[in-house]
UniProtKB/TrEMBL annotation:
Cofactor(s) required for function per UniProt: Mg(2+); Mn(2+)
Location of the Malic enzyme NAD-binding domain: 304-557
Encoding gene (name): MEN-1
Membership in a protein family: Belongs to the malic enzymes family.
InterPro entries: Aminoacid_DH-like_N_sf, Malic_enzyme_CS, Malic_N_dom, Malic_N_dom_sf, Malic_NAD-bd, Malic_OxRdtase, NAD(P)-bd_dom_sf
Domain Malic enzyme N-terminal: 113-294
Name of this chain's protein: Malic enzyme
Coiled-coil region(s): none
Swiss-Prot/TrEMBL keywords: Metal-binding, Oxidoreductase
Length: 588
């Protein structure tokens, strides 16, 4: 690492603040590589006194040392006791666990982030399995529904139709210049909850917290954005506490002109290597935006590509339990939206890559059911464009149970957003055809899951391999403990995005998604398989993300779209050294 030490004063090394000292542009000393170096708590000027205690990036609460209290004019502003970060973490976890309502835990975590950023991420990283359902799905869904009521301080940027023609100016209002990842939503399809308008901001905020905690992207490099074009949710329009535009949602040319201005301004302000993740856009806009900008910008849609990659990883890992190769299996989806078709396409690409068969041929092993029944060639004229590749020759089938009996799938995947659609009859039909049926109920939140883990195991007499989108508790059946897998996008997008950032990649390629899936599947061990798991435990997520980032970066270098040269010799070690660490730093 290039040293930032420029001169000596009174025998002490002084850092040139204009020089990156960690990974790329680590101006605040956030990466693991700089953990042992002293830093200066500065914004425009060096933070000190009361302002330092109110700055969440640098505030350490009672953990300021005696020397730091003298150097930064903190005497008398804090009680005399000096705490440790570990003791602070213990105290806060005890406090959070006293709340019975998950939303109260969410609010407590957000308040912590606003006053002590490093402690927030320390809690989240060290207690990831406990706190992940709080800061993200399922609790974040309820938080978005009530965002107007719990809103205290703005997080991120709000860009509405009022800012049309001035979006570049709005982006320049954000205090950070070295942004690496933007997560943006228009709030039209938040989880399985529908149109939440401006209150969808909870999703970009939550996603970026996970980019940092799970993937190691610096908080200072993250920017959550909500595009507010109105809402068609009458309940919100009539809610006195609603924080967004009180108008019907803009559509058509007006909508796409605003999004084009936004994408142009982002590239102009932050450059070619800024990653823009589209989040929770409605199907028709999600596919259109991804297709339009994937050749000109570094863009990623987690609902289409991230979901596909994490599900493919589970499928690859499950082959150890199911037997055979991916090309030997038949797949049936309930749900043909952006998640379902995105997963289906990535499966087809992986089979094509392994067998050298054209993707048009490998798609024939994959069937989709939408609200009107099995997608077949006879319906082609009335189908949306993204469904047409999945319209195979077959007689019409009107419901899922009949589709299961007709197609005889080995793998059943739910992305419908409709709860309890994998009925007892459906699961029993899957179990009657397969020794080990793979059942993936992926819809979020928990209430929208196609079936529960308990139902899948019970109705299949303990033979099902099960995974879901939201977490389910372990379940004992016939004296055997089953641990449900969670096909959570959090396995993929933090490491995937970090791999793009650390390699300076300028475009996302499907081969990178396949590399991410294979890297995740490789982290499942024999010990995990013995418990019926097809995903590794979340407790290892930082290690998993480093391996995914390294695999994605390696593929980017191979494809010639990585700009950070020379290529590091050991990409895993490089990823680990560039990861954000939440441990308190010593201040000069």
């Amino acid at each position: 690492m290039e040293s930032a030490l420029k001169e000596q004063r009174d025998g002490e090394s002084v850092v040139d603040l204009s020089t990156p000292v960690g990974g790329v542009e680590d101006v605040y000393g956030e990466d693991c590589a700089t953990e042992d170096q002293c830093i200066t708590p500065w914004t425009i000027a060096v933070s000190s006194g009361y302002n330092l205690l109110r700055d969440p990036r640098y505030n350490k609460g009672l953990a300021f040392t005696e020397r730091e209290r003298d150097a930064h004019y903190l005497r008398g502003l804090l009680p005399p006791v000096i705490s440790t970060q570990e003791l602070q973490e213990k105290k806060l976890m005890q406090s959070i666990r006293q709340y019975d309502v998950p939303l109260h835990k969410y609010v407590a975590m957000m308040e912590l982030e606003e006053r002590n950023e490093r402690l927030f991420y320390k809690l989240l990283i060290d207690n990831v399995e406990e706190l992940l359902p709080i800061v993200y799905t399922p609790t974040v869904g309820e938080a978005c529904q009530k965002y107007g009521s719990i809103f205290k301080r703005p997080q991120g940027l709000y860009i509405s139709l009022k800012e049309k023609g001035r979006i570049l100016e709005v982006l320049k209002n954000w205090p950070e210049r070295s942004i690496q990842v933007i997560v943006v939503t228009d709030g039209e399809r938040i989880l399985g909850l529908g149109d939440l308008g401006c209150q969808g901001m909870g999703i970009p905020v939550g996603k970026l917290a996970l980019y940092t905690a799970l993937g190691g992207v610096r908080p200072s490099a993250c920017l959550p954005i909500t595009i507010d074009v109105g809402t068609n949710n009458e309940k919100l329009l009539n809610d006195e506490f609603y924080i967004g535009l009180r108008q019907k949602r803009a559509t058509g040319q007006e909508y796409y002109d605003l999004l084009h201005e936004f994408m142009t301004a982002v590239k102009q302000n932050y450059g070619e290597k800024i990653l823009v993740q589209f989040e929770d856009f409605a199907n028709h806009n999600a596919f259109e935006l991804l297709a339009k900008y994937r050749t000109t910008h570094l863009v990623f849609n987690d609902d289409i590509q991230g979901t596909a990659s994490v599900v493919l990883a589970g499928l690859i890992a499950s082959l150890k339990l199911l037997g055979g190769a991916l090309c030997d299996h038949t797949f049936l989806f309930l749900g043909a939206g952006e998640a379902g078709t995105g997963i289906a396409e990535l499966i087809a690409l992986e089979i094509s890559k392994k067998t050298n068969a054209p993707v048009e041929e490998t798609r024939k092993r994959i069937w989709l059911v939408d609200s009107k029944g099995l997608i077949v060639s006879g319906r082609k004229e009335t189908l949306q464009s993204f469904k047409k590749p999945w319209a195979h020759e077959h007689e019409p089938v009107n419901n899922l149970l009949d589709a299961v009996k007709a197609v005889k799938p080995t793998v059943l995947i739910g992305t419908s957003g409709v709860g309890r659609t994998f009925t007892k009859e459906v699961v029993e039909a899957m179990a009657s055809m397969n020794e080990r049926p793979l059942i993936m109920a992926l819809s979020n939140p928990t209430s929208q899951a196609e079936c529960t883990a308990e139902e899948a195991y019970t109705w299949s007499e303990g033979r099902a391999v099960f995974a879901s989108g939201s977490p389910f508790p372990s379940f004992e059946y016939n004296e055997k403990l089953y641990i449900p897998g969670q096909a959570n996008n959090c396995y993929i997008f933090p490491g995937f995005g970090f791999g793009l950032v650390m390699s300076g990649t300028i475009r996302v390629h499907d081969d990178m998604l396949l590399a991410a899936s294979e890297a995740l599947a490789s982290q499942v061990t024999e010990e995990h398989y013995a418990k019926g798991m097809i995903y590794p435990p979340f407790a290892d997520i930082r290690k998993i993300s480093a391996h995914i980032a390294a695999s994605v970066a390696a593929k980017a270098y191979e494809l010639g779209v990585a700009t950070r040269l020379p290529r590091p010799a050991d990409l895993v070690k490089y990823a680990e050294s560039c990861m954000y660490t939440p441990n308190y730093r010593s201040y000069r």
